[in-house]
Specification:
This protein is α+β, with helices and mostly antiparallel strands. It folds into two domains: 171 residues, 3-Layer(aba) Sandwich (Peroxisomal Thiolase, Chain A, domain 1), CATH 3.40.47; 125 residues, 3-Layer(aba) Sandwich (Peroxisomal Thiolase, Chain A, domain 1), CATH 3.40.47.10. It contains nine helices and 15 strands. The strands form five sheets. It has a five-stranded mixed sheet, with helices on both faces. The chain has a four-stranded mixed sheet with strand order 8-15-14-13, sandwiched between helices. Strands 2-3 form a two-stranded antiparallel ribbon. Strand 14 and strand 15 form a beta hairpin. Helix 3 packs across helix 4 and helix 6 runs parallel beside helix 7. The protein is globular, with a radius of gyration of 20 Å. The protein binds oxa(dethia)-CoA (UT7). The site of oxa(dethia)-CoA has 19 residues, from helix 2 and helix 6.
Length: 335
């Protein structure tokens, strides 16, 4: 019996871009502030330095620069961009920073909105944008991951301040009826374990008039139980990737690149070992940038594309994980 012919829409990956601020904070410099050392930070995390935003390069500016670079890699007129999704936990405007990026780009025909899922944010945003493309609603999308965690780090807490840095990355993706390079995805959250990593509101009680209280705005610095987050990542990331391989009929042996959220080199190595993916296939640049939250995956991707490590049709297994707790995986073919 002949079935109904459905026009399948797939996703094609067209461009990448990234931006990091100029200010470099080395491990040695951090040790002028808290009791730590280059040796401790390097051996426990793999990080040597990170970038710190100044007044001029906030999330909007970094996201804009990354998005512009991604568009420049394509042959698109910016007016043909339909959708801009900005993954960030640190917008310049809590009402959303994506429309400001849209305005700076001159992408006047796009709809732009923010999405917050901490370090899983970029992956969740990429999955979201891809669904709009596959569903036929939009044709061209820019997915941005940008964060400025330096504004929310407790710079006196040596257990967390050594990890984070600022930056942005972006991907340009397009709907196509010829093939589908977005092979599959999975995503999960577990709010029960949310207290392991937070950037909580201050919740300071004030009153408007007698007997009518309100909670004044503002946020407390990042609070993190490093050991629990570490255990969560090395357990859940291999499981979700393994599940995705089974679902898509791929094996870890077919993967050209493992592209994980850049949190800690020990996490990257441990996940690679569990999936039997050799070290030379694990992309890593956290030595230079530390953990830039939603930016790590597109920042790493842009570097690997531009220096010709990732090539046309390479299979990339990605995973983002972090606060929420949240985690996800995507399997794509570049191009
Ligand atoms: O996007 C997700 C974001 N979060 C993460 O990825 C966090 C994942 N967790 C980690 O990366 C690791 O847990 C850390 C790098 C944060 C910490 O490494 P660890 O090997 O788990 O260290 P620890 O917390 O078990 O601490 C070991 C020792 C402690 O001293 P004592 O109690 O054994 O005497 C700490 O006080 O190291 C001490 N310590 C430090 N020493 C020098 C903790 N931080 C520092 C530091 N410098 N910066």
């Amino acid at each position: 019996m002949e079935g109904i012919k459905v026009n399948q829409i797939g996703v094609s990956f067209k461009g990448t871009g990234s931006f990091v601020p100029d200010q470099i904070l080395t491990n040695q410099k951090i040790s002028q502030r808290v009791d730590t050392s280059d040796e401790w930070i390097k051996s426990r995390t793999g990080i040597s330095e990170r970038r710190i935003s100044s007044l001029e390069d906030d999330v909007t500016e970094m996201g804009y620069r990354a998005a512009l670079a991604a568009i420049e890699m394509t042959d698109w007129d910016v007016k043909t961009v339909d959708l801009i999704v900005l993954a960030t936990s640190t917008p310049n405007d809590l009402f959303g920073s994506a429309p400001s990026i849209q305005a700076k780009l001159g992408a006047s025909n796009a709809v732009a909105f923010d999405l917050t899922a901490a370090c899983s944010g970029f992956l969740f945003a990429l999955i979201t944008a891809s669904q709009f493309l596959k569903g036929g609603s939009f044709k061209r999308a820019i997915v941005i991951g940008a964060d400025q965690l330096s504004s929310f780090v407790d710079w006196n807490d040596r257990r967390s301040c050594i990890l984070f840095g600022d930056g942005a990355g972006a991907l340009a993706i397009e709907a196509t009826s010829e093939f589908d390079n977005f092979i599959g995805f999975d995503m999960q959250t577990d709010g029960e374990r949310g207290s392991f990593l937070n950037l909580p509101s201050k919740n300071i009680k004030d009153s408007i008039i007698d007997n009518i209280d309100f909670l004044s705005g503002g946020f407390s610095p990042i609070q993190m139980n490093g050991q629990e987050v570490y255990k969560f990542a090395v357990r859940e990331v291999p499981i979700i990737l393994d599940k995705l391989f089974k679902k898509t009929n791929y094996s870890s042996g077919e993967v050209d690149w493992l592209l994980l959220h850049q949190a800690n080199q020990r996490i990257l190595d441990s996940v690679g070992d569990r999936l039997k993916i050799p070290r030379e296939k694990i992309l890593s640049n956290l030595e230079k940038y530390g953990n830039t939250s939603a930016a790590t995956i597109p920042l790493m991707m842009d570097e690997a594309i531009k220096n010709n490590r990732i090539k046309q049709n390479d299979i990339i297994a990605m995973s983002g994980f972090g606060a929420g707790l949240s985690w996800g995986a995507a399997l794509i073919k570049w191009g």
